[in-house]
Amino acid sequence: MIAYIHLVWLLRLESFFGPRALLDYESLSMLHRNVWKWTYLDGRESLWLACVHEVLALGMGLAMSLGFWTRWTVPAAWFLTLMTAHRLAPFLFGLDQIVLMLAMYLSVSRCGDAWSLDKRFGLVQGPVLHWQNTFATRLIQLHLCVIYFFGGLGKARGWMWWDGTAMWYAAASYEYQSLDWTWIGRYATLGSILTHGTLFWEIAYAALVWPRLTRPWILAIAFFVHAGIALFMGMITFGLMMLVANLAFVPLPDPRCDTSS
Q1: Domain span holding position 78
Q2: Is residue 203 part of a domain?
Q3: Residue of 128, 132, 102, 100 lying closest to 115 (CA atoms)
Q4: In a domain, 255, yes or no
Q5: 32 and 123 within one domain
Q6: How far is CA 140 from the centre of its chain?
Q7: C-alpha closest to that of 20 among 47, 53, 49
Q8: Sign of CA dihedral 86, 243, 7, 118
Q9: Each residue's pLDDT tens digit, 233-257
Q10: Both 9 and 112 in a single domain?
Q11: What's the Cα-to-Cα distance from 116 to each of 61, 67, 113, rounded to whole Å?
Q12: How many separate domains does the chain show?
C-alpha cells in the first residue's frame, strides 16, 4: 500500500511538488507554524528531487511488501512516506495515516523473520518468535484502541449520531458513494440501529476487544464496518488497511511450524 500511494503521488508529481505545486512554500510554512513537522520537501524542492524521492519510496514499499532486507527497507519506507506526508499534510486521507502508523510500528519489529524473501534466502537468523514482534503488535493494538475510542467520542459530539440519522447522511453523500444505498432512508429503524450500534462499537472497542469472550464479536463488527466503508463509500484502500490493522488482534499460526523453507 505504501508503494501504491507513492505511485499515485508520482503520477501527479507537478500538482504536489515543485514550484507549480498546489501547496507552495509560504502556505506550507503557515500550516507548520504552530506544529513541528520537518521535511526536506519544504515547498522549495525541485521536481527532480521530488521524483527521485517518490521513486525511491515506491521501491522501498515494494521491497517491504516482498520482505526483502526488511531491517532497512521498512524503516526507510516509513521515513520517506513521512517526509511526503509532512509535505502534503492538507491532502492526506485516513489511508495515509493508517499506513504510516503501521509502517512505524513494523519498523521496530522483525517482520521479515518469517514468510519473506529474507527468510527464504537466509538473510535473517535467530528465533522466529521475538519480543520485538510482540512489542510492535501490542503497539498497533493500543494505537487502534486510541483511534476507535477518540473517533467514537468525536462522533458523539454530533447530533446526527444521537438522533440516529448519521447512516442516512452517509448514504446521501454522493462524494463518497460508490454504491447506491439511499434505500436505507426508507427504513428509519434500521438506520438508527446501525448508527447507534456503530457509535457504541467504536467507543467500547478499547474495552471489549481484549477479553477472549467479546473479541470475536468486536472484530466481526470491525469487518462489516470497514467492508461496508470499502464497498459503499468508495474508500476501498482505507477499508482494506483498517481490516489489516485489526488482524493485530487475530492469533496467527506459529511460524515455527512452517516447513516450506
Answers
A1: 2-128
A2: yes
A3: 128
A4: no
A5: yes
A6: 11
A7: 47
A8: positive
A9: 888 999 999 999 999 999 876 655 5
A10: yes
A11: 14, 4, 7
A12: 2
Which of 83, 99, 128 delimits the end of a domain? 128
Cβ–Cβ contacts within 10 Å for residue 168, how many?
A: 21
Q: Which residue type occupies 55?
A: V
Tell me if the pTM is above 0.90.
no
Q: Mark whether 94 and 177 lie in a shared domain.
A: no
Where helices occur in the chain by DSSP H, the ranges are: 2-11, 13-16, 25-31, 47-66, 70-87, 94-107, 117-120, 131-156, 166-172, 188-208, 215-232, 236-246
Q: Are 150 and 204 a contacting pair, CB within 8 Å?
A: no
Cβ-proximal residues to 136 (8 Å cutoff; 6+ apart), any chain: 105, 106, 108, 109, 111
- If asked whether residues 197 and 231 sit together in one domain, one would say yes
Among 128, 154, 182, where does a domain finish?
128
36: its cell numbers: 513541528
Q: Is the pLDDT of residue 213 over 60?
A: yes
> Are 69 and 123 members of one domain?
yes
pLDDT tens-digit profile of 145-202? 999 999 999 999 988 999 989 988 888 887 777 778 888 888 889 999 999 999 999 9
Domain-embedded: residue 140? no
Q: Do 54 and 45 form a contact (C-beta atoms < 8 A)?
A: no
